[in-house]
Amino acid sequence: MSSSAAGPSQRTGGAGDYGSALEEEPDGFPPPASDGDLVQAGARGAAWLGIASIVGKVMLAATTIVLARLLTPEEFGLISLSLVMIVYADAISDAGVGQAMIYLPRTRESTRAAFVCSLVSGLVLAGLVWLGAPLVADFFHRPDVTPLVRLLGVGLLASALAAVPEALLRRELLFSRNTVAYFIRSLVTGGVAIVLAFLGAGAWSLAIGTVSGSVAYLVAAWVLCPQRPDARIWRTTREDIRTVWGYGIPVAGSTLLSRLIFDVDYLIIGRVLGATALGYYTLAFRLPELLIINVFFILTGVAFPIYSQVRDNAERLSSGYLVTVRIFSLYGLTAGVGLAVGAALIVPAFFGEQWEASVMPLVALGLYAACRSIGGGATEIYKAIGRPGLSVWLSLIRLAVLVPSLYVAARLWGIVGVAWMQVATSLLFAVLMQAVAVRTLGLRWGALGREMLPALVASAAVAVVGWPLAHLPLPPLAALAVLVLGGLVAAVVALRAIFPRVLADLLSVVRRRSPAAA
To answer: Running DSSP on this structure, what letter comes out for residue 321?
Structure first.
């Protein structure tokens, strides 16, 4: 960490570059405490969102297990094909309005302009999805994809309209209310999908469940927002809209590219190898996504508003970023290695022998998620200092490397080759993203390496202890339980022996600011 580095406001001009047109009337929210402990606020927010994540993961895991036994790999693949276009459109459904609301000055003008922008972008994208659904079906040579895509497009408008209240909750660090909204979405999505699958709806069960969850989240976000966003859209000016979109559109572009990077493997597998292969790959990807990648989404959701509040203090921003790197890498590396070690037990134990082809992709994708954790938090730093364009350029470079690499891997080695190519490219770009963050913040590589070293030690302990435990002559569920317990104990013992302060610091944060204590 370098306290002599120029502060972000010196390099970017701070929020004033975007917010000069939005400083007329306050929006009704109380101002944040200037001397609040933002690290503890972040820990409290992460705890609340962690509760939502745990509940959501349990429900999603239960949904996946039930659906894996009710649906065929082809039906799993079919809904994945249908979601290809939707996930890209959903990434920009609010045109970056949610991120702009966190970054920009807090005014009635900004909320009105944000509401107009999200409404317009949601309507336009929903219409484009309706018109483009046949093109998606033609691309995959599956005409039955068209009605599924059109149905899923309804969820885009719901996501766009939920962006403003969700962003206001996050900006004010009201993560407990976000938790309730996330829980409602998970409950509705899983419940509807399972009921319809039992009734024999096939791939439609997942599509209808997804849309139902989006609508439920929209209603919950508006109800839970303590101060209703100003919806008098007729008072919005062009200057207000330009200000919101001036920050939001680059962020939306970065988000779209990130989503394309995240899901381009589905696109390539579906095109090259077909729906059944995509079904096996989707199931393998579901666990790393559920247990690791979704946790990162929660942590970055907390990190961005925290970073934004301290962006004018270079030392606090750098210190906060190093804490983020430590947490991301510690959790991501140990969990990813654990998934890779236990893949051969997890798949038959939870999903059945018919999904055996998902085992080897799961080994690689567990390590892929671990590699992603190394670059965690960098994108939020770029946005917090007012330079979201950095993410755009990095994403463009990554996409240019990723697409041909995955295409060749799919042609030569199938879904296993795609999974291992994901590992290689994610490691390469995690290092690149951290290099940009280090340069931007004026950090030293040694400081960054020290934050990642505990994660490397803990994950190595999991691998060394977990491998023989995974091959014990026990039933899969019993062996998996022994593996999880043994890996956890090995990681804790290794950290306590070599990095005792790491465990002490994490425990002190949790004890001081649990949701119950808040």
So the answer is: H
Q: In sequence order, which residues have a C-beta less than 8 Å from that of residue 244 and are 6 or more positions away? A: 22, 97, 100, 101, 104, 110, 113, 114, 117
Tens of pLDDT along the chain (518 residues) come to 333 333 333 333 333 344 444 444 444 444 444 434 455 555 555 555 556 656 666 666 666 677 777 777 777 777 777 776 676 667 666 666 766 777 776 677 777 787 887 888 888 888 888 888 888 888 877 888 888 888 888 888 888 888 788 877 777 766 677 778 888 888 888 888 888 888 888 778 888 888 898 899 889 888 887 766 666 766 777 777 777 777 777 777 667 777 778 778 988 998 899 888 988 998 899 889 888 887 777 667 667 667 766 777 778 888 888 888 888 899 999 999 999 999 999 998 888 788 889 999 999 999 999 998 888 777 778 877 777 677 778 888 988 999 999 999 999 999 999 999 999 999 999 999 889 888 888 888 888 889 899 999 999 999 999 999 998 888 888 999 999 999 999 999 998 888 888 777 666 655 544 444 44
Burial of 473 (0-12, 13-18, 19+ CB in 10 A): exposed
Would you give the end-to-end CA distance of the chain in angstroms? 30
**Where does 361-424 show beta strands of DSSP type E?**
none
d(CA 449, CA 378): 15
182 three-class SS: helix
Q: What single letter denotes the amino acid at residue 343? A: A
d(CA 487, CA 334) in angstroms, rounded, equals: 9
Cα dist. 286→229, 289, 290, 344, 452 in Å? Answer: 35, 5, 6, 15, 26
Q: In the block, which residue shows the tokens 């691309």?
A: 139
Enumerate residues 6+ apart whose C-beta is below 8 A from 508.
none
Amino acid identity of residue 340, one-letter, is: A
Q: What residues have CB less than 8 Å from 274, skipping those under 6 apart?
A: 77
CB 211 within 8 Å of CB 155? yes
User: Residue 226, SS3?
Assistant: coil
Q: Which secondary-structure segment (H or E) carries 355?
A: none
Distance CA 498, CA 457 (A): 8
What's the rounded Cα separation, in Å, for the pair 393 and 416?
29
In this structure, are residues 117 and 241 in contact, taking their beta carbons and an 8 Å threshold? yes
pTM of the model: 0.65
Max CA pair span of the chain: 70
Answer left, alpha or beta for residue 141, where phi above 0 means left and psi between -120 and 50 means alpha: left
